[in-house]
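Hi, here's the filled form for the chain we discussed.

Project: internal
Contact: R.S.
Residues: 192
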Amino acid sequence: MRVLLVDDHPLFRQALAATVRQIAPEHSIEHYDTLGEARAALGAGEDALVLLDLKLPDSHGISGLLGLKAQAPAATVAIVSASDDHETVQTAQACGASGFISKAVSVEELAAAIETLLAGAEWFTETGPDHGRAPLTTAQARIVEGVHRGLMNKQIAYEMGISEATVKYHLTGIFRKMGVQTRAQLLTLARD
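And the returned structure, exactly as it came back:
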């Protein structure tokens, strides 16, 4: 399995790589400074583990996760971030992340998280009570990614091969799941 480390801080990437090598030396480890580099290297049907920072030079917030999941739905994407408040963790989970690791965790917890993710299970740093936000479906994640790119409903429908009415139906469900009422609020949540 390939492990893609996507973080613009070289020292943190090195620490992640050392932890992965210690747990699973047989895995291929790749380092990327930007989301664009990682997306270019990741195949659509590829079974890879991506450890993704939320703040990159070319991506800020959950939009990077949405783009990766839309491009490579088979990939396991876990967020590794210093922005580890409860809302951010829950939003990442709702948007399809398989895990969330706080950059403030101990080396032991980091190792446990990576080992769990490599085994195919989810790992979420405990940040407080679970408010039960339901995860987005693959179609909903693709629609949010389209909204983030500035596409109109008609354009999203064309790209996905569905009707504009279906896009509107999904947007209603997305608004409910994400606790927003408008497209602008959804964009703000995705960017934050």
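Let me know if anything looks off before we file it.
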